[in-house]
Amino acid sequence: MNRSPSYLLRDTLAVSGAILLSIILSLALLVPLISIEPEINLGKRLMEPSYSAPFGTDRMGTDLFMSVIWGARSTLLMALSTVSFCLLIGVPIGLIAGYYRNWFCDALMRLSDIAMAIPEIMVAIAIAQALGPSASSVIFALSVTYWPFWARLVYAETRSMRNEVFIESAQALGASPWRIMALHILPGLVPSIIVRTSVGIGATILSTVTLSCLGLGPPPPTPEWGRTISESREYLPEAWWYPLAPGLAVFFTVLAFYLFGDGVRRILSPRSFRRGTT
């Protein structure tokens, strides 16, 4: 038995995460309607924070506050695209490998074990470097290295559900394996997948920013948080405000996804309910 969604409203941290996440996503989606793209003004380069530019300006005289809001679009798009591809790859593999018991499924899981044993960010850097700096390179590199996390989760959950009575009943009634996986097992995995995805987006944002800091993300003039942080290093410590805006954006965005994901986990976790936690 799962907790009522109204429980989320009594969870201060989860509500804070949901509100913060809504603000960030709304700004990223609506910024083209409320503002033009940041303009270059060399006469205002490296200005300290002021009323007209709350977070100061960068080396090109661009308002860092507006640059970060526009950068949210590319950063979030790369992270969400990466997680979407991970779901498309990892969920079917974990579902099939968890339901069937043969050498091929075992080989798939061993492959995921090997992938998880290697530092993901190092593999992602190598792949992105080989493909060249672009948003698609970042998405592909992270998708290739992160799908095993979803595959492993779905595999473990499927193996535990496979011997349940309702699955055996469906088999006895002649339901095909694909029907059982699609209509009986997969719906039961949705809560775990939602929680893993919410937390995974936060981790993916950090990896996306890391790759962009190394010059492997979208090239200029596309605004991007990681590249802005990387550019600021040349002007520190004098221009202390330069990395502040993108750094805060990364911090609060990742925090919002983690808080929201943790709140959803407490709602959807039957174990938490049975323990009687509040």
Topology, element by element:
Elements: H1 6-9, H2 12-34, H3 64-99, H4 103-117, H5 120-131, H6 135-161, H7 165-172, H8 177-213, H9 225-232, H10 244-268, H11 270-275
Helix pairs in contact: 2-3, 2-10, 3-4, 3-6, 3-8, 4-6, 5-6, 6-8, 7-8, 8-9, 8-10, 9-10
Give me some keywords for this one.
11 helices, mainly alpha, 278 residues, disordered C terminus, MetI-like fold
Brief summary of the model shown:
By secondary structure, the protein is mostly helical. It has helices spanning 6-9, 12-34, 64-99, 103-117, 120-131, 135-161, 165-172, 177-213, 225-232, 244-268, 270-275.
Textual characterization of the structure:
- The protein has 11 helices and no strands.
- The chain has one domain: MetI-like (MetI-like fold, Orthogonal Bundle).
- The radius of gyration is 22 Å and the shape is elongated.
- 72% of the residues lie in helices and 0% in strands.
The CATH homologous superfamily is termed MetI-like
Question: In whole angstroms, how far apart are the ends?
Answer: 15 Å
Question: What share of the residues does DSSP label as strand, in percent?
Answer: under 5%
Low-confidence stretches: 270-278
Name the overall outline. Answer: elongated
CATH topology: MetI-like fold
Number of strands: 0
The H/E string reads: HHHHHHHHHHH
Helix tally? 11
Helicity, in percent? over 70%
What is the average of the pLDDT values? 83
SS class: mainly alpha
CATH class group = Mainly Alpha
* CATH architecture name: Orthogonal Bundle
The gyration radius over C-alpha positions equals: 22 Å
The major β-sheet equals:
none
Question: How many structural domains can be distinguished in the coordinates?
Answer: 1
